[in-house]
Design goal:
By secondary structure, this protein is an alpha/beta fold. About 45% of the residues lie in helices and about 10% in strands. It contains ten helices and six strands, in the order αααββααβαβααββαα.
């Protein structure tokens, strides 16, 4: 029909009108309701604010019991510790699903091996304090945000427990204590001092279950620990 615009002509005319109206930027490929009511603001997720809350809570308590209560308030699935505070503190990376089911740390097969390791040097949970660098269960290594949220509790727990020596089980626990990124194979068997406390890194029991050939090295570390406390 004479005078009727084709699709291309109509599109060009529409674009010309938008330009005259001041529209000069394309911001998307599909229509968007710019004048619709905005979505409600969502508060920060607990993980985002946990490090700040954790640090204030951890620094304000003066007993392990109060620290455990503050930890559970911030992280309800956390497992605080097991055993008895004394001259030795054993620190792992984080609780496992088996620990969560049992309601205590080191409750799985690796924990049973840890009990045997302690018994071999004349110790038990009755005179050894067991804890983790990250206190709530999870799969695999803790993410940086998790480690940051756990660190204030972890540091305060050591300060309140006041051990003479710490046995650090595995690379993640050693890194949480020392800040080192070296592998556990290079760190194990070497005494370090962290905040005035002697720290001995060794292989984690879970690693020893996978690599039983390393048990001899772990035994050497345990003998060093026993000699240190003699």
């Amino acid at each position: 029909m004479p005078g009727q615009f084709s699709d291309r002509d109509e599109a060009a005319a529409a674009l010309g009108w938008w330009v005259l109206a001041g529209v000069d930027t394309i911001v998307g490929d599909v229509p968007f309701a710019w004048l619709a009511e905005p979505a409600p603001l969502v508060p920060d997720a607990p993980a985002a604010v946990a490090p700040r809350i954790a640090e204030r809570a951890a620094l304000s308590v003066d007993s392990l019991k109060a620290l455990a209560a503050a930890l559970l308030e911030a992280h309800p699935t956390a497992l605080f510790a097991d055993g008895t505070p004394g001259d030795v503190m054993v620190i792992g990376d984080r609780p496992t699903a088996a620990d969560a089911a049992a309601g205590r740390v080191f409750a799985d097969a690796a924990g049973a091996l840890l009990d045997r390791m302690l018994a071999a040097i004349g110790r038990s949970r009755g005179d050894t304090y067991l804890a983790n660098a990250v206190q709530w269960p999870g799969a695999g290594a803790a993410a940086p945000a998790e480690a940051a949220a756990a660190a204030p509790f972890f540091r305060r727990q050591i300060a309140l427990a006041r051990p003479k020596a710490i046995l650090a089980l595995g690379q993640d626990a050693t890194a949480a204590l020392t800040g080192s990124t070296l592998g556990i194979a290079r760190m194990r068997g070497k005494w370090l001092e962290v905040g005035g406390v002697a720290v001995l890194p060794t292989f984690a029991p879970a690693h020893l279950l996978r690599q039983p050939a390393h048990k001899a090295l772990a035994w050497s570390d345990l003998c060093d620990l026993k000699a240190k406390l003699a």
